Amino acid sequence: MSFNVPETDKKRVVIVGGGFGGLKLANQLKGSGFQVVLVDKNNYHQFLPLIYQVASAGLEPSSISFPFRKIFRKREDFYFRWANVTGFRAEKNTVSTSIGKLRYDYLILAAGTVTNYFGNANIEEAALPMKTVEEAMTMRNIVLSNLEKAVTCEDPVQKQELMNIVIVGGGATGVEISGVLSEMKRFVIPGDYPDLDVSKINVYLIEASSKLLGAMSPHSSASSEKFLRGMGINVLMNTKVLDYKDNKVVLDNGQEIPTQTFIWVSGVRATAFNHVKPEQLNRGGRIMVDEFNRVKGTENVFAIGDICYQTEKDYPNGHPQLAQVAIQQGVLLASNLKKLENGEKLEPFHYRNLGSLATIGRNKAVADFANINTHGWFAWIIWLVVHLRSILGIRNKLVVLINWVWSYLTYDNHIRLIMSAKKHITVDDEED
């Protein structure tokens, strides 16, 4: 296999990753005179803020996914290639992938992050991550199949393992999945599983620090914790997970929680590439860039979004790993690439904080905007509107809206199917 991208007199921009930043950059380069090549290990864009709803059987995966080829249909000088990128050679202007090497004039790394297990092999093997649609589908299957097993299980110890759900990580994803599982326990499981004692279903949320939603305000953190405790979630703060063995989550306070549903959303690290030098990396494996998002020590390699480490006066420890950062960097980088070609002065990046949102459950959310912090029903409505507007495609917007309305009116999520592909198709890695 090979890229089979035609050679041209136009400068070639290769974008690695079609997340929020990469997708925005590719769209902004329309009609720019560049040949644009987007490379991604999936053939679709994932709307990650709603991935927890796929994991909890609230939405179908197709509702938050959109094929790249449909997004860029009939676009001249644009090429999508389904491949896994393994590394790049800045001195040779080539990027290495599972389908061969490709020359570039400008390379943009926008591959985001992967789950960080902090070197614990037992946790990595047993835990359920939630960074992709596929992982969300796996989680949905396991949550539902464990409930089915609990119905017929006669061993009381194993039965309790099947009915305990442990979520590690008190960021937005952890808070949101905890809330939706609590509502599932309250509104869905009693009807679907009348022969299960719902009072024995326990949802635990474990956070190593003293604050939930660490990137948000103390007001939002406190409100989210109050909401979760009121919904029956066992919130354990200042508690670290040391290990997972014998179907038990081992905590640093000596406690062990038996469970076969172990969800890990505790941290991320940047996607790694071959031939990136250690001095180009910062904490979490993030690639260091200058104020123009140019990778340290290079002239024509850039990084945007969660994968990059960029500082400015208001963010001395790097920008938060949020979609808005990636989107704004993508917009500015598109403009700067055009300026590079025209010999114009580049514009440095400055992040504009548009606010942060997190939903906890029905009529419950928290929102931070400048000096305004709100929570409850009003924040929940804002969350709904913002996320609905951000989803790609009219069809997807309608499907999500209908699902939300139906769920709100009936207290029921209706997509509780245990389904998995018999053969998983992936792009192969190629040694560089």
TrEMBL record:
Residues 354-409 form the External alternative NADH-ubiquinone oxidoreductase-like C-terminal domain. Gene3D superfamilies: 3.50.50.100. The lineage of its organism: Bacteria, Pseudomonadati, Bacteroidota, Bacteroidia, Bacteroidales. Keywords: FAD, Flavoprotein, NAD, Oxidoreductase, Transit peptide. It catalyses: a quinone + NADH + H(+) = a quinol + NAD(+). Pfam families: NDH2_C, Pyr_redox_2. Residues 12-330 form the FAD/NAD(P)-binding domain. Its EC number is 1.6.5.9. It comes from Bacteroides sedimenti. Belongs to the NADH dehydrogenase family. The keyword NAD applies. PANTHER family: EXTERNAL NADH-UBIQUINONE OXIDOREDUCTASE 1, MITOCHONDRIAL-RELATED, NADH DEHYDROGENASE. This is NADH:ubiquinone reductase (non-electrogenic). It is an enzyme of class 1 (oxidoreductase).
